[in-house]
Amino acid sequence: MQQEKMEELKASFEKDGYVFIKEFLGREQVDEINSKLVDYIQSVVPGMPANHVFYEDKERPETLKQLQDLQLHSSFFNQLMTNSAFEEVAEILLGEKAIGKNVEYFNKPPLIGKATPPHQDAFYFNLKPPQAVTMWLALEDVAIENGCVSYVAGSHKKGMRAHGRTQTLGFSQGITDYGNEEDAANVKAFPAEPGDLLVHHCMTIHSAGSNITTDRTRKALGLIYFGESAEPDLEATEAYKQSLNLPLVNS
Q1: Residue 139, Cβ density class (10 Å: 0-12 exposed, 13-18 middle, ≥19 buried)
Q2: 184-195 burial: b if 16+ Cβ within 10 Å, else e
Q3: Among 93, 116, 151, 237, which is 20 to 30 Å from 42 by CA?
């Protein structure tokens, strides 16, 4: 990547807590990922651990909404994460060596694809310092109607917000006081086309709407990278485990 482009991305990331890179991958590359995903879902998913596979409705395979750790079961997705263009961007934005941790698949099926509650990934990651990025690659056209991602600009500089249990499978924690004036003034939605890439800091507040369309899915690939300097925060990890024992609340 050109030095000027690198500096521009880094400056934007530090200011807003996210970057949006148009046409990060070409259509042929996206088509290959989609083809590999079809094969993966057919051949690998039936044997995956239950806590790595999430459905909106377990009785309906077509409602598959999320897969975790694709890189553990596929050399293709492992290579996508390691020594790749994605890793290069992660290292530019983090300013240090990036370590690939997870390749995820996300979908919001028509009509029943639920909203992703506002949250900060650092609440789940429990790192000290909170040096990590999450990438979100659009695999098809994504608009507000089928659940595009939204960010609260600058929220990565405001510290950790209070989180509480939600009933959204795969996103068990959400910000309990989300929606104040500052949130509303700085939120921005990002419709995307296949191959567009969103990258956010683990402290950045983000969410995604439900899929209210009748005939459109909302498929995306996620990649998570930790900075080399990040270490497990044992105190935060214990607090997170305790929060999982609290009663469920609507969010």
Answers
A1: buried
A2: eebbeebebebb
A3: 116
